[in-house]
Specification:
The protein is of the alpha/beta class. It is built from 26 helices and 15 strands.
């Protein structure tokens, strides 16, 4: 870029600059250093530039807006013969910043924010030996942070898995108590298989009840087959015919007929002895048959051959049949109830019959009453065969018989199923055991549903994050990463020598052969951390470069790279800044541009004396101005601060008190270094004028004890501070007037009064 170039910086409402700040930087080159004391706004300026950095759009926050307002405006522009451009940033409290950048520059900013974002203390273990270091580079810290989150996700996932494992172990223990551990289904009760199951309604209790029912079955289950019901001896049709038919009675004398009815069985039996014998003797009394006896026998025979006798015989046959039926039914009922009791007590153990309800047989008393009613009718018919009787009793018995036949058939079928199930008991028991194992597995799934869902979510997060890490690592293996690693290794070695070693694999810095303590913070100083971060800042420039021409677009903004730095590292940092162009263009044709902000006068002067920067400016009291001197002394700056407040009318800042203390400490070490401390010096007679100004003494006292004047409940007002500044200047004027003259400051006579 040519030398005819002007940079303009203007902003309002950010940091200390509640009012408009306008600065025109007339440049002879594009390497600028700005000196400013603490609290003058350097960090605010660097953060605004950092917002234009490729990955730092969040650098501008609400806290940067001045408390007196709600908006902030920043503009950096350049103009020259060949080019012009502008960076504009606006921010309203609560809203995202608006960033417009047509400069074409690749802004690359180093400040305390960069150190925070790109330097992370890391502690880890290798082969059980304590090993600590620093991870440098935000992209590497991002991966490291993701790995930590990945480890946390893995830890939480393991906790969830352990909880499921515990539930599975408890289930296995329960099933072992049931002696089921040899079953194949038991062996499938594992955490892996539980995780594969879909959650469903828990049926374990039912399976357990079934198992227990089978488990408690007797070894010798009785057979229920053989229930006998035979009603073939009964002929309802014959009964109906007998009862409804009116039979004709024989023409025997009634006395004879009555006698025969009473003795019919006896007579019938006796006559059988006469059949075919031709005997003349009576089989009953042994007397010889005479005519009258033979006639009587003939009459017997004739009667028995008649209808009445046949009918009575048929009636007797039905009565006997009914008696036999009733006895058989009584036996049937007794057998049924015994087998029904067995059936009902054991059926729950068998799936196929568990829900069967046995049919009920008609009550014995009901059947007995029906049979008695038929018998009564038969008795009446027997007394008078000519009577035609009602068939109601027979119909009642018929209905009962049909009900019996149907119920007995269903009962026999149920008993048959029971016998089949009992014969298949071994298979049924095996099925019940397997079902119990399966349902216990589902019970675990049900109980662990919340845990499983949480673990599934953790696994999804783990998978996604792991993919991000792999992608980041994959990108990190591009040549850019290697270029950053190579340069960082070179810079670390040039600055630290063998004291610290850079590991390009994981971007860690470790102490050489020195054994580390419990914390790396005890080893690496703040200055070393700062310079380490600065080395990475320079090396990470490669990440901004997509092609060879991009190096021409680089714009470095560097805010206090030596803050809290061990002094011997200052030379290394200065050298790195000097060689920026050579680092990214070996031809030496690159014209690196940078804006360097610092509060360290020694560092500022070193940059000036070695012509590393060509344009020098100071930032003071919200004003950037050309530095007319070739170097800056801290003492002169502190005097200038006091002069601006006391003489020029500037408002005191939070650094004014420190300037008072620094000037007085300089006087003490020059004027009377034998005094043991600053307070003793102030109590000397020659400092009576300083003691008379209360605030001077207060500042020195507070600062001497490491306290801050701003910790006081009641701070001195601006006028009191102004009087303190004037008191110090007057003291110098009286005792060492050359100090003011050398600094270009002049007090009028009236101010000494």
């Amino acid at each position: 870029m040519g030398t005819n170039l002007t940079w303009n910086i203007a902003f309002k409402g950010f940091g200390l600059f509640k009012d408009q700040l306008n600065a025109e930087l007339k440049l002879s080159a594009s390497k600028v250093a700005v000196y400013a004391g603490n609290g003058q706004g350097k960090t605010c300026i660097s953060r605004l530039f950092r917002a234009a950095d490729q990955d730092c759009t969040t650098a501008v926050s609400d806290t940067m807006i001045n408390r007196a307002g709600s908006t902030g405006e920043f503009e950096f522009s350049f103009s020259g013969k060949d080019a012009s451009g502008k960076l504009h940033i606006s921010k309203t409290r609560g809203d995202d910043p608006t960033i417009e950048n047509d400069t074409g520059y690749l802004f690359h900013v180093f400040n305390t924010d960069y150190v925070r974002d790109n330097l992370q203390s890391q502690h880890y273990s290798i082969n059980s030996d304590a090993f600590s270091g620093y991870i440098v580079g935000r992209e590497n810290i991002d991966v490291s942070d993701k790995r930590k989150r990945l480890e946390e996700l893995e830890k939480k996932g393991k906790q969830k898995r352990n909880a499921i494992d515990d539930a599975v172990a408890q289930a296995q223990s329960e099933l072992k108590n049931y002696k089921l551990s040899r079953l194949n289904e038991y062996k499938t009760l594992t955490t892996e298989n539980v995780l594969k199951l879909e959650n469903r309604t828990n049926r374990y209790d039912a399976a357990l009840a079934k198992f227990n029912a089978l488990k408690n079955l007797p070894d010798d289950i009785p057979t229920l087959a053989g229930l006998v019901f035979d009603d073939k001896a009964l002929s309802l049709d014959v009964l109906k015919e007998i009862l409804k038919t009116s039979y004709t009675r024989e023409s025997f004398a009634e006395d004879f007929a009555d006698s025969m009815r009473r003795k019919r069985t006896f007579v019938e039996k006796g006559l059988t002895f006469l059949e075919g014998t031709g005997a003349d003797d009576c089989p009953f009394c042994g007397r010889k048959f005479d005519d009258s006896a033979l006639q009587l026998i003939h009459m017997y025979e004739e009667y028995l051959k008649g209808q009445e006798a046949k009918t009575i015989s048929a009636i007797d046959g039905q009565i006997n049949a009914l008696r036999g039926f009733l006895n058989d039914y009584k036996s049937l009922c007794s057998d049924y109830w015994a087998k029904a009791t067995t059936f009902d007590s054991l059926k729950s153990a068998f799936n196929d019959i568990a829900k069967i309800s046995l049919e009920k047989l008609p009550e014995y008393s009901e059947v007995e009453n029906a049979v008695t009613a038929v018998n009564d009718a038969l008795g009446k018919k027997k007394e008078n065969i000519s009577l035609a009787l009602s068939l109601d009793s027979v119909e009642t018995l018929r209905v009962l018989l049909e009900s019996m036949r149907e119920h007995v058939s269903l009962i026999k079928e149920a008993f048959s199923q029971f016998d089949i199930a009992a014969n298949n008991l071994k298979k049924e028991m095996t099925d019940a055991k397997n079902e119990l194992c399966i349902e216990r597995k589902y019970k675990v799934r049900n109980e662990c549903d919340k845990i499983i869902l949480e673990r599934t979510e953790l696994l999804a997060q783990y998978k996604s994050l792991n993919a991000e890490i792999k992608e980041a690592e994959s990108k990190g293996r591009r040549p850019k990463r290697q270029a950053v690693a190579n340069m960082l290794a070179s810079l670390v070695h040039s600055v630290f020598g063998a004291r610290y070693i850079f590991n390009p694999d994981d971007f860690t810095i470790s102490l050489g052969d020195v054994e580390l303590g419990n914390d790396v913070e005890d080893i690496m100083s703040d200055g070393e951390k700062f310079v380490l971060a600065f080395c990475h800042y320079v090396a990470s420039t490669w990440n901004l470069l997509e092609n060879d021409d991009d190096a021409k677009k680089l714009f470095f903004v560097i805010d206090d790279p030596i803050s809290s730095l061990d002094y011997h590292y200052v030379y290394s940092v200065v050298q790195i800044i000097r060689d920026l162009n050579m680092l990214f263009d070996k031809s030496g044709n690159l014209r690196v541009r940078f804006l360097l902000l610092t509060h360290n006068s020694a560092f500022f002067n070193m940059l000036a004396r070695n012509k590393i920067v060509q344009d020098l400016y100071t930032l003071h009291g919200a004003e950037i101005s050309k530095c007319n001197k070739h170097y800056i002394t801290p003492y002169s700056e502190h005097l200038q601060d006091l002069y601006d407040v006391a003489i020029e009318g500037s408002n005191p800042t939070h650094t004014t008190g420190n300037s008072i203390r620094q000037v007085i400490e300089t006087l003490w070490r020059f004027d009377n270094p034998a005094e043991p401390d600053l307070l003793h010096y102030l109590n000397a007679e020659e400092c009576r004028d300083l003691r008379d100004c209360e605030f001077v003494y207060t500042v020195c006292n507070d600062q001497s004890h490491g306290a801050s004047i701003f910790d006081r409940d009641q701070l001195p007002d601006d006028e009191a501070i102004r009087r303190a500044c004037l008191a110090v200047l007057n003291h110098l004027q009286d005792r060492y007037p050359g100090q003011l003259v050398a600094s270009g400051l002049r007090l009028v006579a009236s101010q000494n009064e």
